[in-house]
Amino acid sequence: MLAGVEHIWKYFEADIPILEDVSFTVEEGERLGLVGVNGCGKTTLLSILTGKIGFDPTPGGDGAVNISRSCNVGYLEQNSGMESENTIGAELRKPFRELENEYKKITELTEQMQGLSGDELTRATEEYSRLSTHFEANDGYLIEVKINTVLNGMGFRGIDTERKISSLSGGERTRMALCKLLLEAPDLLILDEPTNHLDLESTMWLEGYLGDYKGAVLIVSHNRYFLDKLCTRILELEDRRLTSYRGNYSDFVRQKKANLERQEKLWNEQQQKIKELQFYIDKNRASATSAKQAKNKQHMLDRIVDEGVEKPKKPKKPPKIRLEYDIEPPKEVFEAKNIDITVGEGDKARTLIDSLSFEIRRGEKVGIIGPNGVGKSSILKTIQGINPHSHGTLRWAMNTKIAYFDQKNEQLDPRRTVIDEVHRRYPRMTDLEVRTLLGGVLLTGENVYKPVGVISGGEKTKLAFAIMMLKRGNVLILDEPTNHLDSMTCEVLEDALREFGGTMILVSHDRYLLNKIATRILEVSPEGVRSFEGNFDSYLEVKEAEREAEEAAKAADAAAKQREQKKLYRTREQRSADTKKKQQLKDAEARVEALEAEISALEEAISTPEIAADYQKLGEACARLETAKVELDEAMAEWMEAAG
């Protein structure tokens, strides 16, 4: 076990618990997702686990936070752990401070050893070897590569690392803090909404990076596709209690539904059993012959009441969203030809896409994706005529009626109350009708009399969809509709969009939504747009196949170039090398022949009576013979190398 908590309680006030008897553990290599509605206590639980806040005394007195002594914990918070006046480069090099100090010592030892001898040189050499081994084993020579890899992946490609942290925007600081935390590579990495400020490309890169991460990861996120891709276990915090589910987010949804159905079935069976026991007890309590059995039945009933199945918690009331339309448009709903996507006016005007063409057919649900800043939201405004275009043509078919959701809710008047915002558009509706509509999306009580500007982002989204339901458009244009919604409302919205029979154009980073809803994906870039049939997973399959084909083509091209290079006329240096090699072979052959002749002559001389009788001459001849044999072996090796 790396870390965990046991029997944790936490109170907002003396008698109002937010966490009630919460326990869980994090094992090595696990990928945990912590989910729950906004305000349920997820961040509070993480703060307790990391020691930022304490927990309250527990009824049993056995509450505990457990962190393994060898476990290094890293926790991502807004602007966490960065000094504003530091440069980006200085901040990102902090995780490698120990390695950089080692490199300085290695450099110093290299210079010192030139003037040392004896024991001092031996000790310096041993220290040099120890430091070098540790430095290389910890990828000390790859520090710059690691920093650039993380910066590029998190959307900071080409950024000036001499910029100060204070010059970054809030979202950029959060991303930079995540970069630093990834470079620190703690044993337990805790991330609170890590994808909030990431575009689709950076989110997908982070998925891949965390998928290969050596340590354990605990993630708080509303990004369901992200949780699906990474998690091996889901922890749900609901009604102050924590429940663990094996698998990813989709597995959690299925298991939770099955558990609730099973608990409801057992509860109903238990209630029937309680009725039967109570009926028997009431009937036989006063009977002289059956009183003992009635008493036994009472004990059985008491055990069921005390230890039986808990009554299933009534699910929170979901909002009601139903999107309908009255008129069917023609088959070809929309067409854009060579239009420009431009933002700003006058001297500040900037063209994001010079020539954009695409069409939409009736009944299609088209998801538009692309990097931040490419102009996805501007496309939606341009095709509706909200933003002007300077060239090209737009054509909407007759009988098309657009209902538009703007992610910034600019279509809502922040000064009007919630109920007046509906009345302004539909003045014939009664207060009762409007309040019934708003109640359906869970805007109730005094909230309907609040100014739109003070309600939450999620409440504004619900208000916008209530208005869209009244409009009954046969074409929905949606810009990031799930940004401020909790999981339950997202699921309700997904069901409504999936059941919608009309046409839809959807910009979203929510890949879970795109996977469930989209029938076609449009990938937008400054060069234009590409169309992919199917949902987001289908799009990924095509992109992966293209990537593999591109790599195969590059490999084939490299092999072809190598073959061509072999066919080219050899350079002067190559001819010179060949000539030198031939001469080396010739010299080696001559040396082998000479040594073989010398060895033969020595062997004959040693056998003559004259040499055999002279001890000195015999010794000299034998010594030379042994030396000549060694030299022959060396000459043969040189010959074989030259001939190879």
Unreliable runs: none
- Please report the distance between the alpha carbons of the first and last residues: 58 Å
Q: Fraction of residues in helices? A: 40-55%
Major sheet, described briefly?
6 strands, mixed
- Please give the CATH architecture of the largest domain: 3-Layer(aba) Sandwich
Specify the overall morphology: extended
Please, what is the average pLDDT?
A: 89
The CATH superfamily name of the largest domain is P-loop containing nucleotide triphosphate hydrolases
DSSP strand content: 15-25%
Computed over alpha carbons, the radius of gyration is: 38 Å
Number of domains: 4
- Widest sheet: strand ordering: 5-6-7-3-8-9
Structural class determined from secondary elements: alpha/beta
> How many strand units?
18
3D architecture notes:
This protein has 644 residues and is of the alpha/beta class. The protein has four domains: 3-98 and 139-253, Rossmann fold, CATH 3.40.50.300; 268-307; 332-543, Rossmann fold (3-Layer(aba) Sandwich); 572-643, Helix Hairpins, CATH 1.10.287. The chain is 48% helix and 18% strand. The protein contains 20 helices and 18 strands. The strands form four sheets. Strands 5-6-7-3-8-9 form a six-stranded mixed beta sheet, sandwiched between helices. A six-stranded mixed beta sheet has the order 14-15-16-12-17-18, sandwiched between helices. Helix 9 (249-284) packs antiparallel against helix 10. The longest helix is centred in the middle third of the chain and has 36 residues, at 249-284. The radius of gyration is 38 Å and the shape is extended.
